[in-house]
From TrEMBL:
One Pfam family from the record: PTR2
The protein, known as: Major facilitator superfamily (MFS) profile domain-containing protein
Gene Ontology CC terms, in alphabetical order: membrane
Natural source organism: Gossypium tomentosum (Hawaiian cotton)
Matches recorded under PANTHER family: OLIGOPEPTIDE TRANSPORTER-RELATED
Length: 577
């Protein structure tokens, strides 16, 4: 986080010292507009990208899916790197500014693959016979996607934080977060409807041209009020502090820990409530152990070398992070299943998508139902389910964090079971109708059958993702709130990489015995087997989650534990955590 300093080097309060001519609510619409334009552009091209790669670049379905998984992983991970660079070296304003420019350049390059025939392989009129893409064509494609990921990382890493910087203590930052959520949701809805509709009906030149304009507008919206922004300078990042603990504990690995901890032995930050480190993960305590006060401390009592001696607070921060990591890692498999939406686009494209005789839903727009299920469930859970359960019990009731996370994992498993059933039925109908060699033929089966996947995937996100963020916020120190906020990004990054690995392995192994399960011809492949495999892995992941829950023990964040600690039993929780 960035904090301004006065001339004596002491921390100052940015909300009170900032000039009235800077910051305030007047800058927030520009920040929200910047993120809205960026989100519509990137979500719009991501949703339908598998159709572009298989149709215009002639990629195999498995290869295209792997490309999208890796690209999505990069887009999820770059904001974490961007946050570290912005907090430690660059600052939020330059980070976002550079991100908008790089993202705009990436969009132009991607647009050029649709505009310039030589930038993509030749495909016939029906995209049935396509030449293999050349190395320069692939390099241009991958370079453009890489620039888009870097641009998204620069923007998404800091847009919320710079928005909060504009508000003083009299303003309501909670309201800003609400508007951020509304902006992101509304932008995604526009992306999967309007942008996808343009791509399906007006072609890729217009379908990628509109996102280029949106990225340009995103840059304009951000730079327009530049003179009014409060721009705070960066300071040392929390991630640096965590790295210092790891390095210091390794450097001091040969030091023997005392049998009885004493205040004089450990380096205590001024004003800290922690006087001795905890006994868990004791080997990390070596990082905060003072070996020789004359050498390890300066005349002012600070560490001579922060990479050899850390505070107890730094050590305990790292311990808290390590303690929540196993439960967080259980969400990786959920990301794998949710990210199968790219394959669902291909599947829905071979089914009857007509709502009326003159209108059909674009295949990529079915992800709209996932977003709707998230919003509907959150509203139902908060406004109907909890009040009703509390009324029946006669006291406030709610699901525990671990229970909600577990239900989300089960929903993700169920989404794969439903997908396997639907694909098995669709494939059987396609074969019966004589479409074995026509992968693009539309079978007589309503595409609404794919809705169970999107609804269950949405419920898994609503249960698990939100509970996971709450779990991290309640079990990590306040100084690690940035990490807690980005836990979903980390899970999505890892999940996309794992999904790419699984898809590639399945393709390489199954095609040795004939047709690959994830063949470009869905009517000859066995996507139903592939979905069953993911369902089985999801169930194993749920067992792993239960083991992690037992090993973790009780956690903070539920009223039952808080009531027990305070001696007041006013609330009842359905689970201990």
């Amino acid at each position: 986080m960035e904090t301004p300093t006065d001339e004596h080097g002491k921390l100052s309060e940015p909300f009170l010292t900032s000039s009235p001519s800077k910051g305030g609510f007047r800058t927030l619409p520009f920040i929200l507009a910047m993120e809205a334009f960026e989100r519509v552009a990137i979500v719009g091209i991501t949703t339908n990208m598998i159709v572009y790669l298989t149709g215009e670049f002639g990629m195999e379905t498995a290869t295209a899916a792997s490309v999208i998984f890796v690209w999505s992983a990069a887009t999820g991970f770059t904001p974490i790197i961007g946050a570290f660079i912005a907090d430690s070296y660059m600052g939020k304003y330059p980070m976002i500014g550079i991100g908008t420019i790089i993202g705009f350049l990436g969009m132009i390059l991607l647009w050029s693959t649709a505009m310039i025939p030589q930038a993509r392989p030749y495909c016939d009129q029906f995209n049935i016979i396509c030449e293999a893409p050349t190395i320069p064509q692939l390099l241009l494609l991958y370079f453009s996607l890489g620039l888009i990921s870097i641009g998204a990382g620069g923007i998404r890493s800091s847009f919320m934080a710079i928005g909060v910087d504009q508000l003083d203590e009299r303003n309501n930052s909670h309201g800003f977060f609400n508007w951020c959520y509304v902006t992101l949701m509304f932008s995604s809805l526009i992306a999967v409807t309007l942008i996808v509709y343009i791509q399906d009906n007006m072609g890729w030149k217009m379908g990628f041209g509109v996102p280029v304009m949106l990225m340009f507008l995103s840059a304009v919206a951000f730079f327009l009020p530049s003179s009014f922004y409060i721009k705070l300078k960066p300071k040392a990042s929390l991630l640096t502090g965590l790295a210092q603990v790891i390095v210091a504990s390794f450097r001091n690995r040969h030091i023997a820990l005392p049998s009885h901890a004493a205040n004089e032995v450990y380096y205590i930050r001024e004003g800290s409530m922690l006087q001795v480190p905890s006994e868990k993960l004791r080997f990390l305590n070596k990082a905060c152990m003072i070996k020789n006060p004359q050498e390890d401390l300066t005349s002012k009592g600070t560490a001579s070398n922060p990479w050899s001696l850390c505070t107890i607070d730094q050590v305990e921060d790292l311990k808290a992070l390590i303690r929540v990591m196993p439960l967080c890692s259980a969400g990786i498999m959920l990301s794998v299943t949710v990210n199968q939406g790219s394959l669902m686009v291909i599947q829905a494209g071979t089914m009857d998508r007509h709502v009326t005789s003159n209108f059909e839903i674009p295949a990529a727009s079915f992800s709209l139902f996932m977003m709707i299920s998230v919003v509907v469930w959150i509203a139902f859970y908060d406004q109907i389910a909890l009040p009703l359960a509390s009324k029946i019990k006669g006291q406030p009731v709610r699901l525990g964090l671990k229970q909600r996370m577990g239900i989300g994992l089960l929903c993700s498993c169920a989404s794969m079971v439903a997908s396997a059933f639907v694909e098995c039925t669709r494939r059987k109908i396609a074969i019966e109708e004589g479409f074995s060699d026509e992968p693009q033929a539309v079978v007589h089966m309503s595409a609404l059958w794919v809705l169970p996947f999107y609804v269950l995937a949405g419920l898994s996100e609503a249960f698990n993702a939100i509970a996971l963020i709450e779990f991290c916020y309640s079990n990590l120190p306040k100084t690690m709130s940035t990490i807690a906020a980005n836990v979903n990004g980390l899970g999505g990054f890892t999940g996309n990489l794992v999904a790419s690995l699984i898809t590639s392995m399945v393709d390489n192994v199954t095609k040795k015995g004939g047709e690959s399960w994830v063949s470009s011809n869905m009517n000859k492949g066995h996507y139903d087997y592939y979905y069953c495999l993911l369902a089985g892995l999801s169930m194993l992941n749920f067992v792993y989650f239960l083991v992690c829950c037992k090993a973790h023990g009780p956690c903070h964040g539920d009223n039952e534990n808080e009531a027990e600690n305070s001696g007041i039993g006013d609330h009842e929780s359905i689970d201990d955590c």
